[in-house]
Amino acid sequence: MIPQPYRQNPLLRMSYSLIAPLYDMVIERPMREARKRSLAGLPTDTPQKVLISGVGTGLDLPYLPALHQYTALDFNPAMLSRAKSRNEKLDVEFVLGDSMNLPYADEQFDCVVLHLIVAVVPEPQKCLSEAARVLKPGGTILLFDKFLQPDQNAWLRRVLTPLSRRIATRMDVVFEEVLRGAPTLEVVSNEGALGGQWFRRITLRKPQ
After folding, report:
1. Closest-CA residue to 146 (of 182, 196, 108)
2. Which of 101, 116, 128, 150 is the most buried if burial means most Cβ atoms within 10 Å?
3. What structural domains and CATH numbers belong to the chain?
4. What integer pLDDT is reported at residue 26 of this predicted model?
C-alpha cells in the first residue's frame, strides 16, 4: 500500500470536510490579490504541465492562464468536489491524493503551485521535497503561505499551534527550515504578501 502521511492527522481531514462550505467565505476575499500576484509567475506564452498541490476548493482556478495543462490534487474529497464545480475553462485533471506523497514519477511538471498547503500538512518538509521531486529541471515552484521568520518569537502562534494544526493549519512553520527538505531548490524571490510579513510569496527554481 502507498504510504499516505496525511492519515497521521485524521482529525484535520474531518475538519476540512466540515469547513469546506465556509472556506471560500473566510479565505477568498482576503487572499485574492496575493493569489493573483503569485500566479502571475506562470508563463502566458508557452504551454506547460502545472501541478496545483493542495488545490483546496479551487480558489486559484479563476486566475490561471488557460493555455496550460493542469493537475489539481487535494487530500480532501469535499474540498476537491468544490474545486471541480468551480472549473469552467481549464484543462484540469482533479486527483484525490497526498501532497506529502505525490502519486507521480520524478520530473513530471514544469511548475508546481503550493498555495496555503505547506503550513497545513503535518510534515511541511515532505510537502516541499515532493514538489521538488516531481518538478522538471529548470522548473519553478510558486509558494504562498504563512511563515515565521527565523528566530521570531511569536509566542502566541506557537502556543496555539498544537490545537490549530489538528483542525486547520500550523502557525509555527519557518520557511528556512522547510527549505532544508529540498536543498537543491534555489530561492528566486521571497517577499511579504499579507499580515505584516507573516504571509509570503516565494518563487523557487530547480536548477537545470
Report:
1. 196
2. 128
3. 5-205 (3.40.50.150)
4. 74
